[in-house]
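Intended use. Records such as the HDOD domain-containing protein entry shown here are meant for training and evaluating sequence-to-structure methods. They are not intended to support clinical decisions.
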Amino acid sequence: MDVRAQGLQAWVDRLNQSELPALASVVKDLQRLAVHEHASVQQLADVLLRDAALTSKVLRVGNSSYYNPSQETIKTISRAIVMIGFENVRLISLSVTLIDSLLERAPREQLLELLARSFHAAVQARNIAGYVLSRHDEEVFIAALLYNIGELAFWGCGGEQVDDLAAQLAQPGVKADEAVQAVLGTSFRQLSLGLVRSWSLGELTSLAHSQAASSDPAARAVALGVQISEAALGGWECERMAALTRAVAEFTGVEEADALQQILASADETVEVATTFGASRLGRLIPSTDPEQIRLQQAQRQAALLQPNLLLLQQSLQDLGLMATGGGDAGIILDTLLGGLHHGVGLERVMVAVLADQQTRFKARCAIGEGTEAWLQEFVMPAEQLEQPHIFSYALRHRQALWMGVPASYNLADLVTQPLRQCFGSGMFFIAPLVAGAREIGVIYGDCRLSGRALKHEQFVAFQRFTQLTGRCLESLSKRPVS
């Protein structure tokens, strides 16, 4: 069960100690090197070589046209430092570490959207800084990327309070700042500044949040990048974007038309940069500059908020009811179940896990929803695990449909084991046994983790009804004479 944190220091401690300790450790090591003028190439290499995956990603970024236009192949960290500079390698490492740590769990839609916005801000800020600064534009990139580090860390850490805030923000007419204050006991801005200090993320990142930002060219570039990334969500032709285009033109000394072209080019470049950093999935969330793509992205944002469809729900239940009296094979039954729960009930991700390999393991049989393809390849759980019992075997053994993440099931929270959290993320979900008569088939899992919205009572009632009908269908199928 989550320990609820309240107030700035409690959140900084929680993120450092239980949620993101590996990230905090590497970030501090990399930042410590920044304050030592005589930090050696070997010291930086040693920090990176602790993690082979991180090293390979830093080399991939270092070999990209963004950092290495000469395209001379870089095969070692020490060579990367010689070719693109100590500071560039350190900041690339910092960025890659942050992104990997946030994306390694099942990331919520709020986190993906904010990370896409952060990348967009970073590229805009760096390119604006290129007009007015002779150096330090990489520091501008990282300061803009980390500008919302507090909010990124919060959405990335999972847990009960994340679900609470997501549910509050989904309410019509809610004031976001008040909701954040009520749930966290502090603001996202204060949490960002708290992590900047705790992780020693540098003066520029801190300065960008202060009143003095407008008088420092680097901090001003960061602020403009952040503001453009936010305004772009309202469309390139909105009033706020027009005002920011004028501000960029004035700051950089170019014509407004040229400033707008630079801003649009930076948006397109962001998609490439995100891919270079191993975050290609963010591309769909970065505002496109192509008119047709703009319309498509707006439609996708609406579609992301999947809504229950009562007619489809009733039709799916009716179809299952007919199949329970005969007709339909296992594939059709399960397709009807998945379609009904996803499009009818409005569950964003649904999986049927069946007992396999002489009933020794749960394996994903079918799934629906964004990102669930990986479950079909990777999801495997031991059916019985005495040293670490889990919620899948509990639900099936006790023949009980469960709504996890609400007070009624808090006593079972320990059964949501670390492997399950790594696969599905943290927060609310439904789980129910799939039983055909006396025969145990497996379990059905459903959640709304993509948007982070809270599940509802009527969805749980429908989920149970689908589960019971599917069991009856499979029982009927097993009794049918073989032709």
